[in-house]
Each structure stands twice: as structure tokens, then as C-alpha cells.
Amino acid sequence: MASDLVIPGQPIPLPRGPVPQLGRGIYEKDSQVRASLVGVPRFEGSSLVISRVRPQPPTSNSVVLGSITRLSPLQALLSIMVVDGIPLPPGEEFTGVIRSQDVRATEKDKVKIGDCFRGGDVVRGLVISLGDARSYFITTARNDLGVIFATSEAGATMEPVSWQEMRCPKTGKVEKRKCAKPEGLL
Amino acid sequence: MASVLPSSSTNPSASSVNSFLSAAEREAIKAATFQRLHPRIYLERFLEEKIRPDGRPTAENIEDPNAWRNVEVNVGSITTAPGSALVRIGKTTVVCGIKAEICEPELDNPDEGFLVPNVDLPALCSPKFKPGPPTEEAQVLSERLNEVLGNGMLSLSSLCICSGKSAWVLYVDATVINYDGNVFDATLLAMVCALKNVSLPHADFDPELHRTVCTRSETDPSKPARKLAIQEDLVPLAFSFGVFAGSHLLPDPTASEETLLDTYISVILDAHAQVLSVSQLGAGVDNYEALDQGVNNLPSSREADTLARCISLAKKRQAVLIKKVYNTST
Amino acid sequence: MQSAFDRRRINGPEDSYHPVFANEIHESSSHVHRIRENRKISDIRPIFLQPGLISQANGSAYIETESMKIACSVYGPRQSKNTAYNEKGRLNVEVKFAPYSCELRRSPLRDAEDRSIAVAIQQALLSSVQLEHFPKSTIDIFLVIIEADGIEGCIASGSIAASTALADAGIDMYGLVTSCATAVKGTDLWIDPTQEESNTANGTLILSCMPALGIVTNVWQSGRIAPSEILACIDACNDRCTDIHSVVAQALLDSAPNKI
After folding, report:
1. Of the candidates B180, B199, B232, which is a domain's last residue?
2. Of B6, C56, C98, C150, which one's alpha carbon is 20 to 30 angstroms from that of B182?
3. Radius of gyration of chain B (CA)
């Protein structure tokens, strides 16, 4: 198993024994295993991968961060800025949509979008599917998903007080949001 | 900062991204993520520590030459242009090439040629731009550069070949290759250096054939090519500043800083560090303590105060830059 | 020479033309069969290739082969705008000549030549990129030709720069694409012709391939070439592409520590 840098198209020598599972950055063609990225092939568990930190489009099950750009009674539009922990360059955001039935797991039919998100909120979501031509479908129906950063009407950064409320530290006023479970939130 | 990130355990691909990285690399990605989500707070936190995101010093250390990014100039490398220059300010890169063509002077100004500066901001240089006609930003830049270059550093009558019949037109085209802020200063410097690099062939107007014929100096040494008659005293250099959050003066802003600025100030000086032009878009700095006490005659209004400060900083910088530019371009 | 008045640019005089030199016609005819002074007809121009100079882009490369100078940047994968849902990604190539890049000044407006070069480069790269990894997305490749010396050279060097920039951007590829041009003059094959050389050739051929896989991605032929000569051109270009591949590989490996 070479620990050297390889370039796209370069054959990768495999260890003796069964062919390992091939992960990202590696492909097999005509029974030859080759690199598709510049990098060092290495094992991650049982699969061989070449990892590369670069901005990538969302796929199913990607965790994304983005800000709410538009609200309607049926859905909230999300401008996706971070995919799987890697920020996208400014101007290269993907558009996501959180439909009202995907906001939370319970009482789906009673969701009021306006009580869950406001424009400018930073939201953590999970990609359900590639969606339609325009946007990716995003869900926040999990404890760790939802609003992680929001500004109050008075302009201060709010703190979550429950999974559906946040408080403004300036005025003490409580605003409604679908909050993500705070793991030492800002 | 860390809390802004998704927990990697929830996603297999996220964990694979993180597993092979060193702690420093993971930290860098976290910082980039934070900057992406909260660009303003990100810059504020740096400035609180008296440092800019690219490592330059701020505020009280502003006299430090390191408050400005490194400038590199390379002239004459494009063989298809009679004058050219490549300028780098930090990572901002601009190429300027000049093409000389022959035309008929205007009826109103029979003894004058033309100087036609244009900036191109192609889609190549930044994710901000898309292919197509010049953006508003490019139009504004070209317009400003046209004003500055028209200040008399090159007399248009020196481009005349034959009064009323024939004159040179210099197309000064700058292409931004990497857009990392302060493109105006870089483009003006590239244009000036390219103009100084131009050499025009000897040209004669033939009244019988009614056309202009040029001579290559290699074929007839008695008719040598000539440099442009540039008024060295009036050669302009630009020094730009940004004001962030009303209290921080940032010389030579980068692209990520530029998007957060309230105010943009450009000071243009001639070769003797005399002010040729000053422009300010937006309000000045309102926190006096952030400014240096070195400015003696403090004017009353804060705008004038900020401008005085910028002009004095520009003059200091000009002394450093002019040495560097002239040493490389001659 | 000038295109119509454009209020979005600073405009010059209505009409201007490239300087005319005395004895010019005489001079250029003597160039026709000028032999190469500094390289053999079977040699390519030396390549300087630097990935990663354009910090604003996801990936980039700058290539210089003597007087040819091309900058290339890659943006994306970013969301495809105004297109129907597509399981595969789109590869978009745009080429722009700087106005000062050629002997005659080029109007800043896009012309047919920009487009035909872009199409040739897009074809050279298309089968090398694993577009199935990028549903609904577009990968944009932008090239600015800073100085040109031959259209064939623009396509060949442009393809090399673009493939390098894609690798620099971390876009999954089956292999690196390299490209080489050749001109048939009389019975000779002139590798990597300059503008002047291809102007006086019977025909030219540009081969793009993935040397690591031994697969040709694009052949672009124009002019008059006999079938047997075409095969000879392909063989000659294929050999050079293998040489160029090692230059590209080295440039990528040298720049790799800067970018994980």
C-alpha cells in the first residue's frame, strides 16, 4: 500500500488479498483501480479513499448550514452555505427548501412556518433528496436540527429556551423558532 | 465557533472528511465556516486582537509598512503589446496590455491623439462575476481610471502624427486575473507601468497616399522607436482605504474585507506626493482613539479628520512604493 | 476596426487601424519557410505550468509556452441555474481573448473564434470528468488568453491548463487530459506550430488524450491532410502528450502540499 501522492488516472497498487471497498476519489475500470483525485490513498475502515477538502454539492444525508432567505405559508427557502462541514465560496450557495411537513417530526399538519423560522436565521438541516430542478429538499425534523443562530427584533443574538422558543437577552422577549438542540450553542 | 459546525457523528461523509485531517486543518475549516456564516463578527474578532484576517497589523501599528500588502510589478512580458505590465498587490493580480493603432484626430482637436483605458473583470477572476458585458463595477472602475489618466500625465498632443490627418490611439486594456480586493490601486499601477513601457514605432503621414506608414527601427536606424512623452511629475498612484464599523481604518482592503466596508476612500498622489484626487464614499471614522495622534492640525469634522489621516498614510506609503515601482520598471 | 459605440466602455475614435509598416509585405514572404531557430520541428515549446495562482477560484492553472500565456480558473460544482433537472453535472467552458493578446487588437466583444476554441476545449475534457458525481450542478471553466501564438496552440495549451485546474479544484476525473497540435507542411510534421507556422501549413491536427489510460478524448483536424499523414500526426501528438503528461503530473504534485 503506497502512501505516495497519486494523480487522476494513476493506477493504485492494492494489497494482496480481496479487493477492498472503493470509496471517494477512487474508481475501477477494466479491473484496474485508479485515482480520480490528487491525493494520498488511505484506508478508512474497510474502504480505500482519497479524501480532499473541497466545497461539494449537497447529496442525500448531507448536513447543511444555511440562512433563511424567504418564507411562505408552505415552505421556507434556505441559502445553503456549508455542506458537511465545508463552507461553499461566497456566491456559490445552493438553494434548499424546508417544506412545512419537514419542519418537525410531530404534529406535522399544525406547523406554521412563521412560528419556526424568520428571514436571516441560520439553520442546520439534513438533505432528504435532491429535490426538483430548483432546490434541494431539507428536513429539520430531528432534535439536533433547526435554528442555531437567530437575531431578535431588537437586534441581539437570541438564546434558545426550549425546542420551540428563543429569548432575546436585551429585551427578554421570547420569539418562536424551531430550535436545534443546543450543544454548547453560541 | 465550534458549536456552529454540525456534529460530525451524524453524517458518514462529514466524519470521513475530518478523520484524516490534522487538528490545525480542522481548526482552519472551522474558522472558514464561521467566517462564511458570520463574516462581520469574524472580522470584528480579528480587529479586536489588533490583527487583520490576512495577518497584517491594524490600528496603532498602522505606520508599519506591513499594513499594506506586498506589491510586485513585471513590465513588458507580453510581446503582442507595445507596452504591458503585470501587477500583484497581495493576491490581487492585474495584467495591462496597450495596443497602439492609428486613427484620424477629431475635428475639434486636430492635434490630439486618444488614450482609451478600460478594465475587464472577467468571470475568471472571482465567483462574483459571470460571463457577459461589463458589469457596473467594471464600468465605474473604467470611468474613474479614465479621469485619473486624463490628468495630463500624457499630453494627447504628443500622440499626434500629422495635424488633422493622423494620430495614435492607445488602447489601455487591463484584465483582472485574481480579484482579491483593492483592484483600483492595482489597475492604475498596471496601467501607469504599461504606459511607461510603451514604445511606438516611427510614423510618417504620406499626404499623397493619404495614409500613415510606420518604420521598424531594425530596418531603418535613423527612424528609431520612441517612448511616450510622459510627464513624470504627474504620474498618479492610488492608495485606497476602507472603514469598517465606523472605527477601523483598513488600508489596502482584501476582497473579503471589501464586502463589509461602510466607507471606501481613495487618495491619488502625483510623483511628488501632492494630492491629485481624493474620493470618499460613505462616512468617516467616528472613533478618534482608533486614529493615530500623529496628525497635528486636527480639523473639526470627522470626515476631514479621516481624510487627513488617509492622506498622510498614503504619502508615507507612496515614498516606499515609488522606489519599488521605479526600480523595477526602468 | 472598432466595433460600434458601447456606452458601457470608454470609447476611442470611431475608426482606427493597426499600424502599417513599410516593406512589410516583402518581409513576411521571407518568413514562409523559415526554419525554427531554437527547436526541432519534432519538439514542443517548453511548458511552464503553475496550478493554484487564482485564489478566488476553486481551482486554477496558469500555462506559458514561450509567448503563449493562458490563465484558467474553475468554479463550482455550483448549482445549475435556469436548467432542467439533470442527474449528471454540466461542464461549461468559456474562453476570452484579452484585447492585447494578438498581433491585431481584438474587440472586447466575444466573437466566433472564442466560442470555437471553447467548444474544442470542452470536447477535449468532457469524457475525462466524472460528471455523474455532480447531479444538478455546473462546473465552470473560464480561460483568459493573455497572449496567443496560434489557434492550435490556444486549444492545446488551454486544454492542458483546464485539466490541471480541474485537478487543482479536486474535481473527480478518470485521468488528466493533455493535448498537442501538429501542422503538416509539405511532407514534414511540425509539432506545436506557432501562428506563423500554421498559417503556411497544408493542414493541422490537434489531439487530446488521457495518456494514463491510453484513451483519445478529441481529435480536431482542419485543412488538407492525407489519411496516412493523419495517422502519423496522431502518433506524433500521442507521444508528445505522454511527455506533457509528466509535466502536468509534476506541477500538480509540486503544488499538492499547499492544498489537501
Report:
1. B232
2. C98
3. 24
**Confidence band, pLDDT 50/70/90 cuts, at residue B219:** confident
Q: Note which residues in 114-133 of chain B have CB less than 8 A from chain A.
A: 127-128
For residue C228, the Cα-to-chain-centroid distance in whole angstroms is 26
Rounded CA-CA distance A3/A24 in Å is 16
Q: Which CATH class is domain A63-176?
A: mainly beta
Report d(CA B153, CA A123) in Å as an integer: 55
Q: Provide the residue type at B12 as one letter.
A: P
Separation CA C139–CA A26 (nearest Å): 20
A53 interaction partners in chain B (CB closer than 8 Å)? 17, 21, 25, 29
Instruction: Considering chain A, tell me which residue range(s) the CATH 2.40.50.140 domain(s) occupy.
Output: 63-176
From the list C75, C76, C253, the residue facing A5 with the nearest CB is C253
Mean pLDDT of the residues in chain C: 90
Cβ–Cβ contact A38 with C under 8 A: yes
Contact pairs from chain A to chain C, CB under 8 Å: 93
Q: What is the CATH number of the domain that holds B185?
A: 3.30.230.70
| Segment holding C50, helix H or strand E | strand C47-51
Neighboring chain A residues of C56 at a CB cutoff of 8 Å:
89
Chain-centroid distance of CA B146 in Å reads 13
- Separation CA A155–CA A149 (nearest Å): 12
Residue whose entry in the numeric block shows the C-alpha cell 456549508: A82
Q: Which three cell numbers stand for residue A16?
A: 494482496
Please write the tens of the pLDDT for every residue from B100-114: 999 999 999 999 999
CB atoms within 10 A of CB B23: 7
Q: How far is A116 from chain B (nearest CA, A)?
A: 19
Computed over every residue of chain B, the mean pLDDT equals: 86
Provide the pLDDT confidence category of residue B14 given band limits of 50, 70 and 90. Answer: very low
pLDDT, tens digit, 9 for 90 and up, residues A88-126:
988 889 999 999 999 999 888 889 999 999 999 999 999
**pLDDT digits over A123-171, tens only?**
999 999 998 888 999 999 999 999 999 999 998 999 999 999 999 999 9
- Nearest CB partner across the interface for C9, out of B77, B134, B216: B134
For chain C, list the domains and their CATH numbers.
42-258 (3.30.230.70)
Average pLDDT of chain A is 90
Residues on chain B touching C57 (C-beta within 8 angstroms): 124, 127, 178
CB-based contact C79 A9, cutoff 8 Å: no
A2 touches chain C (CB under 8 A): no
Which pLDDT score, from 0 to 100, does residue A3 have? 55
Q: Give the confidence band of A44 by pLDDT, cuts at 50, 70, 90.
A: confident
* Nearest residue in chain A measured CA to CA from B127: A91
Give C81 or C70, the one with higher predicted confidence: C70
Please check whether residue B63 lies inside any domain of the structure.
no
Rounded to a whole number of angstroms, the distance from the CA of B78 to the nearest CA of chain C is 7
Same domain for B199 and B94: yes
Q: Give a yes or no: residue B27 inside a domain.
A: no
Q: Which residue of C has its CA nearest to B115?
A: C12
> How far apart are the C-alpha atoms of B274 and B222, rounded to whole Å?
39
User: What residue of C is the nearest CA neighbor of A24?
Assistant: C172
Location of C-alpha cell 495577518: B55
Mutate to test the interface with C, among B124, B165, B169 (most CBs of C within 10 A): B124
Residue B195: inside a domain, yes or no?
Answer: yes
pLDDT band of residue B19 (cuts 50, 70, 90) is low
